[in-house]
Write a structure and sequence with these properties.
Layout lengths: L1 H8 L8 E6 L5 H13 L4 E6 L9 E2 L3 H4 L6 E10 L17 E8 L10 H8 L6 E5 L8 E5 L5 E5 L9 H4 L4 E3 L8 E3 L12 E5 L5 E7 L6 E2 L6 E7 L7 H5 L6 E4 L1 H9 L12 E5 L8 H7 L6 E5 L33 E7 L3 H13 L5 E6 L11 H9 L9 E6 L3 E2 L1
Protein name: F-box/LRR-repeat protein
InterPro entries: FBD, FBL60-like, LRR_dom_sf, LRR_FXL15/At3g58940/PEG3-like
Organism: Cardamine amara subsp. amara
């Protein structure tokens, strides 16, 4: 604490551009606010604040008021803590504004009920005061008790909602769950967190998006009951992961993003599209589709996607594992489809097929041959062997390429490339 006081005392009149403060137990919250006040008065534009206070001290630790009173110069604001709360503020009556804030990252912040018992008021007010906000990252916000939540911003371009990332308090029991790091890639500063989500146990019943200029959406959370959605026609990149899909209907969410150009789907969402969407989505503008695989999840939704993506150019599989069923049509060859099954592969316009984490098992090799046999417009297939595969004799890149070169192809001009992360292209 004395060290921070000495640092801030040096060149007390000189401007500060970037200020990062990580506080553990034993640091007085009033001292934290004093440090922030001194930094903000010197023009800080990039602020990271992570407060890991014990749960035993108080139910929730309020954010330092100086952020709201002197945050006019902030351009980037990252806040995390696991025990922080926005409410209980006299300041939260609208008498603050962030006129320059463009990037806001909230990790494990409590935005729960206010004194009137309503839901989401503080969050909506916060967004309304960020008048030029371009990027919003929400990790593990405590909003599961809300009846509804709204993300509304006319200037927002990038939105990330991830219900799993979590920065714990200093409670020892939480750290026993195992820690990773809130990396610089996600806007953090090496602070430990655990993927055990104590806040994000479910989503609000209704989640609405009013973001007409949104370009990039990464949504990973439990499925809400309803999604009033207006993301405008500008959305170009979407990554979706939905947890517990069997509990809810995600039709509005899927149908509301049909103008997307780049789409990344988890195996859970593939099942949602097949089983829990009342209307088949049509993605006329989709050019790049990326799909994660899971041996416990089915591919019934894959034929629906391939048939309804008339502009698809690139298809990426993160592994080829999925549960064997009879509902995949000709999207795979795990069970021979009936003659009446829709021809999702033969009609698919994809030109580039990329397969990651390839292990060259008999099943994987057979499925690749199936793709080559039915994708009529395919120009390039790229196979990337998983990191350990080159140690196995059966996974030699040259041998894999040689075996697949002998497979019949619907597209005679298709070029096959087998890549190993360690050895390069063969």
């Amino acid at each position: 604490m004395e060290f921070v006081n000495r640092v801030l005392a040096l060149q007390s009149n000189s401007p500060i551009t970037k200020f990062s403060l990580v506080c553990h137990k034993g640091v007085d919250e009033y001292l934290v606010d004093d440090w922030l006040l001194k930094a903000l008065r010197r023009g800080v534009s990039d602020l990271t604040l992570i407060l890991l206070f014990p749960w035993s001290l108080r139910k929730h630790s309020p954010l330092p008021p100086s952020i709201f009173s002197y945050g006019q110069n902030l351009i980037k604001l990252r806040i995390g803590g696991g025990n922080l709360a926005f409410f209980n503020y006299g300041l939260f009556q609208g008498d603050f504004i962030f006129p320059n804030l463009r990037i806001l990252h909230l990790n494990s912040i409590n935005l729960g009920r206010n004194n009137s018992g309503t839901n989401g008021d503080q969050f909506a007010l916060l967004l309304s005061k960020c008048i030029v906000l371009e990027e919003l990252i929400i990790n593990c916000i405590k909003w599961h008790g809300w009846s509804s939540a709204s993300v509304s911003s006319p200037t927002l371009k990038r939105l990330t909602i991830d219900g799993e990332q979590y920065i714990p308090s200093m409670d020892d029991n939480i750290f026993k769950a195992g820690t990773k790091h809130w990396s610089s890639e996600s806007g953090g500063s090496g602070v430990p967190y655990t993927l055990v989500s104590y806040f994000g146990i479910s989503s609000p019943r209704n989640i609405s998006f009013d973001t007409p200029n949104l370009l990039h959406l990464n949504y990973s959370d439990f499925v809400a009951r309803n999604y009033p959605l207006d993301v405008g026609s500008t959305l170009s990149h979407l990554q979706v992961q939905e947890r517990e899909p069997e509990l809810r209907d995600a039709t509005n969410l899927i149908m509301g993003i049909q103008n997307v150009q780049t789409l990344h789907l988890t195996s859970d969402t593939i099942e949602v599209i097949a089983d829990f969407c009342k209307t088949e989505p049509i993605f006329h503008n989709l050019k790049h589709l990326s799909i994660e695989s899971d041996s416990e999840r089915r591919w019934q939704g894959l034929p629906i996607l391939l048939i309804n993506c008339s502009s698809l150019q690139t298809l990426v599989f993160h592994g080829l594992h999925h549960r064997v069923t009879d509902g995949c049509g000709d999207a795979c060859n795990c069970i021979s489809p009936l003659s009446s099954s829709s021809s999702s592969l033969s009609s698919c316009p994809v030109k580039i097929l990329k397969i990651l984490d390839f292990g060259a098992t008999c099943g994987e090799m057979s499925l690749v041959e199936h793709f080559l046999k039915h994708l009529r417009q395919l120009e390039q297939m790229i196979i990337i062997l998983h990191s350990d595969s080159f140690l196995e004799e059966d996974c030699d890149p040259f041998e894999v390429s040689k075996a697949l070169d002998m497979a019949p192809r619907a597209s005679p001009n298709c070029k096959l490339t087998v890549v190993n992360e360690s050895l390069g292209s063969q």
